[in-house]
Amino acid sequence: MRTRRVRSGWARSVIALSVSALLLGACGKTVGETIDDATITTRVKTALLNDPEIAGLAIDVDTFRGVVTLSGRVETPEAERKAIAIARQTSGVQNVESTLQVDPGDS
Known about the structure:
The chain is α+β, with helices and mostly antiparallel strands. It has a domain at 29-102: Histidine-containing Protein, Chain: A (2-Layer Sandwich). It contains three helices and three strands, in the order ααββαβ. The protein has helices at 2-27, 31-50, 77-88, and strands spanning 59-64, 67-74, 95-102. Strands 1-2-3 form a three-stranded mixed β-sheet. A hairpin with a 2-residue loop joins strand 1 (59-64) and strand 2 (67-74). The longest helix is centred in the N-terminal third of the chain and has 26 residues, at 2-27. It is elongated and about 40 Å long.
């Protein structure tokens, strides 16, 4: 039984190192940076969804090394400015880039 635990622990270590290497090699970020970026993305997206003036579902949020990119559509230039401001105010955000398109829709 003791042998299984050692093997199991060794196997987990090898798997963890393999996953870490894949993540680092795949996108040029450490595992910690990947987790931080995912946390920032979640915080920004949640803040956008909680704002009644912004159609948060129509905005995509991507983060790379603390730089948030907003893309998608908003109904007014004011909504675009507000979305950018919300992203900038989010903890961990280093910078915000926007490729948001203003599309009034059927209004």
